[in-house]
Amino acid sequence: MNKSRIIPPEELKKQKEIADEVLSYWKQKGKKPLAHIITYGCQQNENDSERIKGMLDKMGYGFTEENEEADLILFNTCAVREGAEMRVLGNVGALKHLKAKKPDLLIGICGCMMQQEHMSKQVKSKYKHVSIVFGTHALYRLPEIMLEALSDNKRVFSTENSIGAIAEDIPVYREGDIKAWVSVMYGCNNFCTYCIVPYVRGRERSRRPEKIIEEIKELAQKGVKEISLLGQNVNSYGNDADFNMDFADLLREVNKIDGIRRIRFMTSHPKDMTDRLIDAMAECDKVMPQLHLPFQAGSSRVLEKMNRRYTKEQYLSLVDKVRAKLGNISMTSDIIVGFPGETEEDFKETLDVLEKVRFDSVYSFIYSKRSGTPAATMPDQIPEDVQHERFDRLLELQNKISREINEDYFEKTYELLVEGKSKTDENVMTGRTPEGKIVNFNDDGKCRAGDFVNIKITKVGTWSLTGELVL
Ligand code: SF4
Q1: I need a labelling partner for 105 at 20 to 30 A (CA). Which of 117, 373, 374, 395 fits?
Q2: CA 231–ligand 1 middle distance (angstroms)
Q3: Residue 332: which of 357, 356, 362 has the closest Cα?
Q4: What values do phi and psi take at 334, rounded to 5?
Q5: In what order do the strands lie in the sheet with 226-230?
Q6: Residue 2 — pLDDT band, cuts 50, 70, 90?
Q7: CA 197 to centroid of ligand 1, rounded, Å
Q8: d(CA 15, CA 13)
Q9: Beta pairing class for 290-292 and 34-39
């Protein structure tokens, strides 16, 4: 048996029955209700929103992007950055007038932000027009929460704390049918000193491999071509479980599934990146030549204060090992600028890592103080103007590197998985190379989403490439 707590099937059956009651509630009213789900934060949250939509779909809801026509407006929130939390509260506050005009409208907030006690208390006392609040651990109980809010017309708060559990077989509503995220594990055990994730998403829980494989096989049957395996630290997959399988083994199993042509995964903690995993990446033909490997800071002194448990030198030698085995694959990373105590010399070490590794792109963040984490009370918090100045220098260097790397793509031909029309120009199609580069191209109506085509790159930019079909 998996050591992780699994939500018992009878509990999930109960939720399904309650979902049917909500469905009947709306049928009796003779109305097709609409929900507007607004998602902040990481892919884990995107994946949670797909499950929220899956459950709402079973309760009879359709979906809209317009607040005015919605019967439910639900914010699925992120707690990683203070700025994002403020934005959520601002957006929720702005809905007070709409709620006054439409008293039956349900407004809800869920996700990581609501898993913090001080936040849910603030919403309870100051945002009286919010009717539903639930944290990450109560997501599977959405049917029960909805029924209570609709039929008893009262505010429902479900923010119990727990180390977390796994709820399998929750319906999932996916927007696209070409690519899919599949969570392989939840939570994190690492306690990096700046990060709130272990507090709001609980400890690591690995899904059973047979459940993951079953889900991916079903997706393949529906025509999905690309899978992204998801977890806060996929490299420790299986460590918490009794089954004898690690992430390298899981990759090999997913690689065998007919119909799936591309596999990606994120996120990998450098301290847990094993030779076995690098070997598996080399052996599995469907694993794309791309690796997201957050380094966070270049100074070993800062890394120690972050509790990352590797040094700059260890990180760089890991990158060398990856490239020796996998060639010049596309690499991306996460970086925090202005961590407490970061000196100019420390920051220059971060720039040095950028120059040595030459990432294709990075997700860089100015350090954001999160109450409850050890870093929030560390001395020597860096003034904002210094943080911003360093951040701008980092972006300038990275943009130059990204552009130079992209220039190597010029006039070369790549296999592209076509994702559909471009969001900014509907006469242009868009897709990704195996390395994950976005390429826009004109197809004269020849392509459909899900096609694999060969594209010759005709123009390069910092963020994307332009190409033409090679017939
Ligand atoms: S590895 Fe560190 S940064 Fe990543 S989720 Fe876990 S605690 Fe947060």
Answers
A1: 117
A2: 10
A3: 362
A4: -110, 140
A5: 179-183, 226-230, 262-266
A6: very low
A7: 6
A8: 5
A9: unpaired
CB atoms closer than 10 angstroms to residue 356: 13
Instruction: List pLDDT tens digits, range 437-459.
Output: 999 999 888 899 999 999 999 99
Distance CA 418, CA 415 (A): 9
Q: Give the CATH architecture of domain 9-158.
A: 3-Layer(aba) Sandwich (3.40)
Fold of 290-407: Transcription Regulator spoIIAA (3.30.750)
Sign of the alpha-carbon dihedral angle for 253, 171, 131, 11: negative
Residue 412's identity, in one-letter code, is K
H or E stretch at 262: strand 262-266
Task: Tell me how crowded residue 256 is: count the other CB atoms within 10 A of its CB.
Answer: 10
Ligand 1 atom showing the smallest separation from residue 233 Cα: 1
Longest Cα–Cα distance in the chain: 67
Domain limits of the chain? 9-158, 174-288, 290-407, 413-469
Write the class of the CATH domain 174-288: alpha beta
Question: What pLDDT is stored for residue 82 in this prediction?
Answer: 83
Helix (H) / strand (E) containing 55: helix 43-58
Ligand 1 pocket, residue 234 CB under 6 Å: no
Is 290-407 in the same CATH topology as 174-288? yes
Ligand 1 neighbour 198 (Cβ under 6 A): yes
Supply the residue whose CA is at minimum distance from atom 2 of ligand 1.
192
Q: What is the pLDDT of residue 84?
A: 85
| pLDDT tens track for 159-175 | 877 666 888 889 999 88
Supply 42's token pair. 């990481």
Considering the four listed CATH numbers 1.50.10.10, 2.40.50.140, 3.30.565.10, 3.30.420.310, the one that applies to the domain covering 413-469 is 2.40.50.140
The distance in angstroms from the start CA to the end CA of the chain is: 52
pTM (two decimals):
0.91
CA distance 265 to 228: 5
Backbone angles phi, psi at 23, to 5 degrees: -60, -45
421 beta partners: 429
64 lines ligand 1 (CB under 6 A): no
Encode pLDDT of 293-350 as tens digits.
999 999 999 999 999 999 999 999 999 999 999 998 999 999 999 999 999 999 999 9
